[in-house]
Amino acid sequence: MNTLNDYITEYLEYCEYRKRLDSKTLKAYKTDLKQYNTYSCDLHECLSRNTVDIFITELHKQYKPKTVKRKIASLKAFFHYMEYKDLLEENPFTKLDVHFREAKLLPKTIPFHSIQKFLSVLYEQKKQAASEYQLRCSIRDIAVIELLFATGMRISELCSLKPSDIDLESNTVLIYGKGAKERILQIGNPEVISALILYQDTFKEDINACGYFFVNKLKHKLSDQSVRFMINRYAELAGIEQHLTPHMFRHSFATLLLEQDVDIRYIQKMLGHSSISTTEIYTHVSNNKQKDILVNKHPRNLMTPMKDNI
Prior knowledge:
Helices cover 58% and strands 4% of the residues. It is mainly α. The protein folds into 2 domains: 4-84, DNA polymerase, domain 1 (Orthogonal Bundle); 112-293, Intergrase catalytic core (hpI Integrase, Chain A, Orthogonal Bundle). Strands 1-2-3 form a 3-stranded antiparallel sheet, with no helix packed on it. A hairpin with a 5-residue loop joins strand 2 (172-176) and strand 3 (182-186). 25% of the residues are buried. The model has no long low-confidence stretch (mean pLDDT 90).
């Protein structure tokens, strides 16, 4: 007789080879489902609505809402698969209320002047490079940050770029986003293009050996963690006290474009969001644009000044 662990293993293979989910999604599914398997050993018991209900309550006690939401989604997808394979008499999620109130956190952005200061320090470090090694590192770091801010791509998307994804003749980048969705973005700034050309020429052999566009000193694929470390280092050199993350460059990309009156649907496409509601959160962050509208365009400013007759 199959155990729950057997069904989980079968489901993860289905996700990898049939649904072709990416490695990060598979890892999350595996973690979440193994946790449920540990929670309930008996097969009949773990397929019951009551067990799932109690498990979800325990999740709420241990984790933040965002994590709970992910774990519920993993479990729900698994039971949907079990139902699809006719391995359930009844799906435990049927008539199970899993909705809960989740606080919406506004995305943290980097002020425009801080981004300008950050980039200035990057280029200054390149000028001051005292060795060939330092110069190569600076050339790569400039290319990474310039592309991150120029496109608003996720850090995982940037680190997964292949040499063929960057076309410096047409100045475009092919991005593989969530759910195996592709999008092509134009690189419009001459300095960004120059930074990428210099990087590509300098690291040509390493790129060919690695198979990825961005490489580390060992000629391996540049990791998300390396980029985080890189950002922390330059932020410290620039005297920026705000804690910066790769994703904040993405948030800033979207917010600053919105403040330049770019249509939110264009921003949605550029970010690779499947739903406009995900992009709309940036409308709450654009404080500079809001200030400009209320100070300069509010109809109260069109009225004749009132005289105080008291």
